[in-house]
Amino acid sequence: MEQKTGKLDQPSVSREGITTSRPIWRSTALCVAACLSFLTFLHGWDLLPTYQDPNVASIPKPDNHSERNFSWHDIEASPELNYYQCYEDYRCAKLQVPMDWWRNSSQPGKNISIAVIRLPARVPVTDPRYGGAVLTNPGGPGGSGVAQMLRNGRATQIIVDAELDPNTTSANSEARYHDIISFDPRGIAHTTPGIHCFPDSLARSTWALQNEALGLLGSSEDSFYRNWYRSRALAEGCSAATGTTEDGSEAIGEHVNTSPVARDMLEIIERHAEWVSKQVSAETSPGVAERLRYIKGKPKIQYWGNSYGTIIGQTFASMFPDRIDRMVLDGVCNAHDYFFGSWFSNLSDADRILERFFSYCYSAGPENCSFYSASGAAAIKQNYKDLLSHIFEHPMVVPSSRTRGPDVITWSDVKSMVRLGMYQPLIYSPMVADLLTSISSGNGSLFADFKAMSNTFTCPGDECTSAGPFSDECNQDDNGADATLAILCTDGPGLGDIDEESFQEYWHALQQQSQVLGDWWAHTRLGCVGWKTKAKNRFEGPFAGNLSHPILFIGNTLDPVTPLANAKEMAHNFPGSIVLQQDSEGSPLPLHLPVPSYLHAALVIHHTNTITNFTQKHTSWSSPSLCTAKATRHYFQSGLLPPLNTICKTDNKPFINTSISLALLTLEDMELTEAMKVMEDTVLQDIGFKRTSGGF
Predict the structure, then answer these.
(1) What's the total number of domains in the chain?
(2) Which stretch is the leader sequence (predicted)?
């Protein structure tokens, strides 16, 4: 066997805005050079030091967390957590687990190698203030925990840790300092084997561009059938490629649903507790040594899950109710609705958020919202509807420029753009207003430039040629959308069996729920049409239980796809748990729903003419709140929930920066505020778009 290298860490449609009348075009031509201005995550952001294990040799520091000096291929998978230094200050491991947790122990079977990443606690694990590990999940399905950790691991640590620097607190204090751990769930990113629906990255990129040209459901009279048959083609092909093997052995597509992921999380906390116990030395005090002693079946989880991550959390809590120490579920999906496969519990707030966009724009005035109308919010709304109506019938032709070819701005493009403003009003509202204004004035160049920036292709290399199609080597850019399909379509029962008539009825029912998002949300289930693979092991509930510790649920007042009502309903199923309401609008951006690539992982022209990456927000992160951050910290520190019916105000509102002055904050609150801003500006660069995928 080849020796692995690395440094081992020993210790027809009802369409919104479609009318028969023509719009009255705005006569003023506006030159839009700035779409958005926001803080971006600066790598190496080091408000607080991380404890450095003296037994771990240093390695060259990679630029911007790149993999130039680290490769997951250099780590040997093991049934134990053997941590290697990686990505500068992090620790990485590959945990080997059974592909089928519930197979007969006497039967041979395959394994999965789970990519695990840890940001070490700011105190040694033998310090009395060590608070254990907090496990995180970014959502999706299809989100990479490794990517999330590299973007906001330090910010997460600051929020859950005690407010004081550990160097200034007594070793006997009640302050807690945590490891932060995340992982790539089954089939995703660095976890192997991966889910691959395409033979290589070039085929995936080509498919995505074809989808952009096709448009959303409702974008034309024949859009249903064209989307229907393309979805079937991908689902049938992907389920066949991932759900069967030539020798009839275990197939990865049968084992990527949520239930085995919850079991994987249990294994991670077991193996981490085992690793911690091995750090005890002769110098460790007897009390600490006893506290760190590993007893199989005793470790409990501390977890922070967002969006689809709340589905994983609810599943874990229902399967292992006595293994909860702390659990924060932020942006809550209704587990009953999700696993039934209808996804009807998501859009109740959606249209109200767009109404607030119009109101915020009017309140902000023309100096802050370029789509402003002096006639009021209703007039702004009508201008938007007129624009949609016109561009549906007359897509905007944009000639070539020196940096891109010709393009056409369509109804689907505008709808996708506006959706960003609904998901992240604080960040995207100015950009949405500017682009609506530029199109209204007859200028589509900015939008076309915007679209062109992400049209990149990766051609198969020598590694791909050697490994063969559908291999990890041929799909190195991103497989999150592929994994999304496999997870969603095997979590629900028989989602691939729906016929055309039944699906159209389902689609129209969603349109009745939301004119703004109904067409788009229908793509979630459409992606499963023709999916043949079934999950081998599927926990069917009940999604409820008496827990060893209550859950803190968090929900925004208005959320386009994870409404506050979901959090309230699910909290009732876990006695003692409560809901913290954040008085804001927004949501996590679903990682793999049909968002055009230029809006999903695209680039935006900053007002300084520099290029910065689009961000994708999650839950309460969509609108930072010092109140929410403090409540979350207090829960992780003490286990105490905030008072019943707590409502946290946010620090900002769309279009107008109303944040409190940092000069009025304590140093600790200032650091907490900056941590929340980093969470807000989280960039999940490795999440890509595929039309037939879904997500929450």
Answers:
(1) 1
(2) none
